[in-house]
Amino acid sequence: MRAFYSLSIFFYGLVIRIASLFNTKARLWMRGRKNLFAELESKIKSSSQPVVWFHCASLGEFEQGRPLLEEYKKRNPASRILLTFFSPSGFEVRKNYSGAEIICYLPLDTKANAKRFIALVNPSLVFFVKYEFWLNMLGEIRHKHIPHFLVSGIFRPDQIFFKSHGGIFREALKGFSFLFTQEKNSVELLKSIGITNVVAAGDTRFDRVADIAFAAKEIPLAKLFSETGEKVLVAGSSWPQDEVLLFPVIATNIKQDWKLIVAPHELGEAHLASIENELEKNGIEKQLIMRFSNADEESIAGKKILLIDNIGMLSSLYHYGNIAYIGGGFGKSIHNTLEAAVYGIPVVFGPRFEKFNEAKELIAVGGGFVARDGEDLKNVLQNLLSDKNVREDAGMKAGKFVKENTGATKIILEKTESLINR
Predict the structure, then answer these.
(1) Which of 153, 192, 346, 361 is the most exposed place for a label (fewest CB within 10 A)?
(2) In what side-by-side order are the strands of the sheet with 305-307?
């Protein structure tokens, strides 16, 4: 099985190399690893401070691990943080993140790369966030007796760890100093294969969104747009599949006392123009639509639709809403529901949410609502749009849900410290 793993890693690297000839993401993957060891060596040798390594597969895992990383750094300022990514979608967005002294790609998981990487970095402590179990890297960490922890893990019965042929992956899990999962079902699954050094610590993203909400930046134009006596629906990370279903419902209510802030997932001109066209197709006059970059205090007056055409604002924009619609649920999968729920507003999303426990739990407590199709979306939104009591009750439940689930970061760090210092 281990030989098959090594062979699969070899072919994975070969496929990426070939794909890089015509695929941008694969090209970034290759380019980012070209001089990885030489660049890493120069950064490592620049200081004798101990290195604490956080690995995140991509951007989502980074946001999951960020509260832990930042709190660890706050408690241990003498340590240098090494942050690694496997995917370009994580590295390219966060390569200038100020919370880590060293940021780089993780090398391909060959035995030679794992030995070289660990020997060079010599981390005093390692955190793997949520996913990715690179057997050679984990084996070398274990061989060097380096404390290493899995945080915010989620396990399902269909994963290889729980299959008859998953022995080497089970061994990798057993090698962790401790595992912190997001929920209790994962704990029971791990115990079923003999892993007892595990606890359900919760989801660190609750801590992250609570921190974001506490330090939310004010957006004067959004505030001005929302303080006219009308109520606001914020559509966050929307895709065309969302917009074609959402806009007809909005068009009906725009004529009454509602407004819409749209923060699309893709900000290219083609998508922005298609949003404007789709709105107009649903009877919303062009003069009622304003792009954020073109707006000022005078021009925003009387507008019903605020179209966000820049990045980095969404988590603060939810603060100005009375309802949030989270995009992606009619496509690949929903985006972050907690960023909206933390502000105490009801959260609506499409049917692709099954991988996200927090979305399921939001529905269960009455703060989240799933729409299975266009007609369902119309009914869900009309109920929230027209009934203040229903809307405010759902919002209260959403906010309470987030508040009651914060604290995972503290649990993880306190347990980690107790294990290392004993």
Answers:
(1) 192
(2) 289-291, 305-307, 258-264, 231-238, 323-326, 347-349, 368-370
Our CA angle for 383, 387, 393, nearest 5°, is 95
Q: If you search the block for the tokens 């060079």, which residue do you land on?
A: 120
Average the pLDDT over 295-306 and give the result: 94
Which secondary structure element, helix H or strand E, spans residue 171, and what is its range?
A: helix 167-175
pTM: 0.82
Q: What is the reported pLDDT for 366?
A: 98
Other C-beta atoms lying within 10 Å of the C-beta of residue 42: 10
Query: Could you tell me the two tokens for 300?
Result: 């925003």
Q: Residue holding tokens 């359900």?
A: 200
Tell me what the mean pLDDT of segment 323-350 comes to.
96
**3-class SS at 329?**
coil
Helix or strand holding residue 374 (H, E): helix 374-386
Q: Is 148 or 48 the better-scoring residue by pLDDT? A: 148
Phi first, then psi, for residue 335 (nearest 5°) are: -95, -165
How wide is the angle at C-alpha 21 spanned by C-alphas 15 and 23, nearest 5°? 80
Q: Which residue has the tokens 């690297």?
A: 13
In a 10 Å sphere around its CB, with 0-12 CB exposed, 13-18 middle and 19+ buried, how is residue 257 labelled?
Answer: exposed
Cα separation of the two ends of the chain: 36
Distances (CA, A) of 397 to 55, 203, 377: 34, 18, 20
Give pLDDT, residue 41: 93
At 338 the pLDDT is 96
Whether the CB-CB separation of 349 and 260 falls below 8 Å is answered with no
Tokens at 88, concatenated: 């370009």
pLDDT band, very low/low/confident/very high, at 367 (cuts 50, 70, 90):
very high
Q: Side by side, which strands form the sheet with 178-181? A: 102-105, 80-85, 51-56, 125-129, 148-153, 178-181, 198-200
pLDDT of residue 303: 93
CB count within 10 Å of CB 231 equals 18
